[in-house]
Amino acid sequence: MNILKKEKIPLKELIGGAQHFLYKYTITGSSGGPKVYIQASLHGGELQGNAVILSLMEDLKHLPFKGSVIFIPLSNPYATNNKLGKYTFGRFNPNTGDNWNRNFIDLISSKKINLTGFCRRYLKESEATIREKFQDFLSKEFKKLEIQLQSNNELHDNNKLNLILQKASCSADIILDLHTGPSATEYLYCATRSIDEAQHLHFKHVLEVDHEFAGAMDEATFMPWVHLEETFERLGRKISFNFHSFTLELESEEGFSLSMARMQKDKILNYFKYKKIIPGKSSPKPYIKEHLSNYITIFSPHSGLIDYQVDLGKSFKKGDILGTIYQFHNLEKTDSTKYQLPVIAAFDGILINKCPSSAIQQGMELFQVMKKSNN
Amino acid sequence: MNILKKEKIPLKELIGGAQHFLYKYTITGSSGGPKVYIQASLHGGELQGNAVILSLMEDLKHLPFKGSVIFIPLSNPYATNNKLGKYTFGRFNPNTGDNWNRNFIDLISSKKINLTGFCRRYLKESEATIREKFQDFLSKEFKKLEIQLQSNNELHDNNKLNLILQKASCSADIILDLHTGPSATEYLYCATRSIDEAQHLHFKHVLEVDHEFAGAMDEATFMPWVHLEETFERLGRKISFNFHSFTLELESEEGFSLSMARMQKDKILNYFKYKKIIPGKSSPKPYIKEHLSNYITIFSPHSGLIDYQVDLGKSFKKGDILGTIYQFHNLEKTDSTKYQLPVIAAFDGILINKCPSSAIQQGMELFQVMKKSNN
Amino acid sequence: MNILKKEKIPLKELIGGAQHFLYKYTITGSSGGPKVYIQASLHGGELQGNAVILSLMEDLKHLPFKGSVIFIPLSNPYATNNKLGKYTFGRFNPNTGDNWNRNFIDLISSKKINLTGFCRRYLKESEATIREKFQDFLSKEFKKLEIQLQSNNELHDNNKLNLILQKASCSADIILDLHTGPSATEYLYCATRSIDEAQHLHFKHVLEVDHEFAGAMDEATFMPWVHLEETFERLGRKISFNFHSFTLELESEEGFSLSMARMQKDKILNYFKYKKIIPGKSSPKPYIKEHLSNYITIFSPHSGLIDYQVDLGKSFKKGDILGTIYQFHNLEKTDSTKYQLPVIAAFDGILINKCPSSAIQQGMELFQVMKKSNN
Amino acid sequence: MNILKKEKIPLKELIGGAQHFLYKYTITGSSGGPKVYIQASLHGGELQGNAVILSLMEDLKHLPFKGSVIFIPLSNPYATNNKLGKYTFGRFNPNTGDNWNRNFIDLISSKKINLTGFCRRYLKESEATIREKFQDFLSKEFKKLEIQLQSNNELHDNNKLNLILQKASCSADIILDLHTGPSATEYLYCATRSIDEAQHLHFKHVLEVDHEFAGAMDEATFMPWVHLEETFERLGRKISFNFHSFTLELESEEGFSLSMARMQKDKILNYFKYKKIIPGKSSPKPYIKEHLSNYITIFSPHSGLIDYQVDLGKSFKKGDILGTIYQFHNLEKTDSTKYQLPVIAAFDGILINKCPSSAIQQGMELFQVMKKSNN
């Protein structure tokens, strides 16, 4: 049986003395191997990743495996507890509007760290050695940064959470950030550097992300490695680090199903086989891939009640009706086009995400779709 | 073809000059008959009733029918527009917390109207004549009340909306208030006085409501008739007025589906046949009925993420697990009962409603169930 | 030095394992005497009472006094932590809309407790003895009720909080529930039975409350004594129990000032002198009193931005302009009455409360005023 | 008398048919002169700017003046109407969290417009001519952009509002964006290019903003001119355009006072004298200036209730107590430092902004201060 360790990380005290903690579970296998980091619910209402963590932990407690896996379920408990009506107001800080997945930092750029010295020192070392040294380096830098911000009362809610998660994950080789869409089919955000790995994760839809930084966890975790590779290249060594970071979108928010989680867990276990973390032969699966620039948000052109007409995960053609918006102040008109307004696809694509409510205001996100690039 | 008339009722001006209106559509048949009133979306996020109205109106524009039908779709546009995150914060006034379906008034009691004079005058008249006279009487009283409240700046948001809807509906013989649950199977609230009519509405689950007043639209509309019958009885005449008011719960909030609406509309049309509003033979259907006192809310005993284990509309037995709440701060425990907390049924029943989110805090509404009375 | 004891009462666990507690502090004096109960912040954003508790506790730790004082500061921590934007969304449960001060229960009525037996048993006892016995009786009943509700998963958020506070306070002779208005001058809610006591509390404005129940803490605590007195009276003994319950409104929500608290504390200490809790001579002060039915809410007749023109606590005459609402979509009009809409007093009165925002929608609470009665 | 023109700009339709408009008022003087643009309430709860607009319009209707002034009061009516409890949830989109003052665009950069051609054509023209030509150019580009976004359903709420305001303001020479802090003293954001002008605006506190873009209105309006000047410089002509854009912070949100507005209006009229828009001699006033990098946010190190101890606009020294946070779960401790936590200034400064609530969670914005630099 593998070793399971729990660490309790103080996150946020509340008025009146209650305190939110993060619970970091580490399962260590019987022998050395990749270090994996998995978190769920960074957006407070995206619950399904926690079921996947539960399911994975049940397996990994007993399965022979190499390396270690860190789990942080409920990685944003403050947000998960933010109920308004029946629903979870968990996507952004209710106090400031800051999206909980936008205040991570590109440590190397933001602290203006020059990696040349580091790379010179380890120029001749093996990939594995450099990887480990760099993980130590990142770890120290995050600790310093946290102390500095804390001592000056510069630590905003979002920064603190994001910093704690970066610190907890910076020693990992593989990062899986478990999200869901509002009302979505399964899809995967994958950096260009990891695009070949993705076929072992068995997601049907893959969005390819450039090596650029916009504040999200996946970007924040792979950017240091991009900077490191670039610095080595400038010094004449071409090296690809065995570091991969993915954002997994596990269908729809507010839902939590163990039976669905077991199927989703199997996809991750297949990837673990591929990475030699657990025994067994992994099988690749083809996926539909588009570059992130082809992941298009369709904003509602009107206000009204929408009847959604394309199912999640389904293809549509240019000219198809994606949904019909009904307006109720013109029902006396004999011409039904006065109150019945179709939202028509401007291109071929696949429906990935839709708004979980049919009460729609002009300018709200209605759909997110993968636009087909090759037509 | 029948006559369709639209009336635009000013509801609420907004800061900056925009204005919400109610749109009251009246379709009048080729000959006299029952007067029906149908409204939807009193709770802002309960959308499906609007689809049923749309579908009914399409039919009634052309169908031969007797009497008249008033429709008020989107009867609470201010609430329907109150979006927080993706969802509609539409159950209660965001300013005061007042539930939009609790500020109706029992006109006769609240204005201390003594009906003896009215009943004496019409003691010998036919039921139909008295009904019409009483509807006129209610109409005048509502107008007076509105003017009085308005002139003294005593008109609160909720009162105003509720008053307008009562005024618009008080001339009707049949009232259908179209709601949905948060996440629900179809069910019907039906006053004892109308319990035999319910079998023509084809709802599978019926909650029997006493002739008492607690602020809701259905109660507010049938109570005047209860008072009238009681007064006649005191004067020695036993009379039942052909007045019926129902609350129809059309599954789940935030959803809007025309295809589902067409099936739901057929139930209403069957009732219309029974009431001789449209031609054709109605068929009764048996239903499962419980008194409202057996409609039990189960509040969550714990906080955590729940995996729901009984489907909406399904029966369960005492001792069945309705759902399991998972807590993520004790996952290292070998004893899974430390983090896996079942919610066990304390009696036999049918699951009518559940919370649409799996992120549950202690003390939140988890389920609403029909408790089986005969065991 | 007096004895200070702390009790930690579990209130509500949150998702992720954090837990809200209530902290009940009891200071016991050197000898027997009245039992006082003081709570603050039942509405989450009404903070000033906590400053008063702090200030009182500092004094009472050292002052010679008789009897005991229970303090529950931050009596609703869940609500105080519910931030939306910068402000506290603390007046009602964000999940259900239930006002936190409306779900207390009139224990005797709601549990249909017949007090005749109790009164017969103690018919000849002293007021002090009966008072103590009745407090024990209430205490036991609340414990039973809590266990019953909890075991059946019938305990809603609001019920639980309200029940805990009733249980904690039911052994007291004097209850001070510390609130604030939204933006208010100081005022006091006082039951008819306690109206003579009020002059020792030194509040300038007093609202007289009937012996009726509408769900609030003050009513819920004095109603059992009203029922008890009525029952004794039916048995032929006229007795007034030395029990008093007040709601103190300590100016405006969101504010917290120790220097202001020291002045407010002195008012309570004067009352303590009057009740012989602390040594010294109390002085009565006259107040302006109106019956609660003359506490009038003025709802906004229009939407717009309001310039408030009467200061809190000030008198106004019928015809005075209380504020002017400006609308910005008609500014081109030469006739300024098209965009400049005065709110005119319909009677003489005193301004007690106003809305803390100048952005006003039609139908919102604008002012609460004491209407001058003609005596 | 000057000419006053009103334009009604459709902004956002609501579910149910209501529609928000912007009202753009243009007052044109008797002869040519600077074109001024003034808007208020971009953040929905920041109301005072509307009072200033009202007050300015009253004067300008009659005052002899040169040029023209555009006013857009209530420039974000959707946000001003978003009430939660008594307060306005108006700083960010409740649907997405997007701050209403962060989605403006730096048109030249974002559309990758190369200005070299434009500058070559007008290389020898006067500053005034080029200014006018460039304003026309911007105007056309904004129109094109709006059509493009609209036709593809790419127009998000925030983008649409921001685009409309940029389009409305892009022909102006002077832009005044009227804001308030949450709870603030008066202060001014001023670009380096306009720093000398600021002394005629009579604000006591000035924050100097670099010529960089971060999404706000002031930056979005001055950046095109920065790009234009840079392009001219590359072509060998050093030219400073007479274009200035300021953000005026008019004390605290939720407030609306005409009497205060009259004093604030006089500051703007003094600037108008300086710019020769109205007759009279302007007087400069010294101000306290710091670079934006010295505008420091102090986040709360603890949760609790804070007693604010420095007044808005006042100086403090390193080591001063800015406020004391009280925690109520340790009141039994004899050592008061267990529950009484001072927030101590780490440097000399001036208090500009504080949180309008004393209920503070760890990590919330507590203060914004001007840190004294050593010059």
Briefly say what this structure is.
The structure is a homotetramer of 375-residue chains. The first copy, chain A, has 375 residues and is an alpha/beta fold. Chain A contains eight helices and 19 strands.
Give the topology, please:
Four copies of one chain form a homotetramer.
Chain A: E1 3-13, E2 19-28, E3 31-40, H1 48-60, E4 66-72, H2 77-80, E5 83-84, E6 87-88, H3 107-110, H4 116-121, H5 127-151, H6 157-169, E7 174-181, E8 187-191, E9 205-209, H7 217-234, E10 244-252, H8 258-274, E11 288-291, E12 295-299, E13 304-308, E14 315-316, E15 321-326, E16 340-344, E17 349-354, E18 359-360, E19 365-371
Parallel strand pairs in A: 3-4, 3-7, 7-10, 8-9, 9-11
Antiparallel strand pairs in A: 1-2, 2-4, 5-6, 8-10, 12-19, 13-15, 13-18, 14-17, 15-16, 17-19
Helix pairs in contact in A: 1-8, 5-6
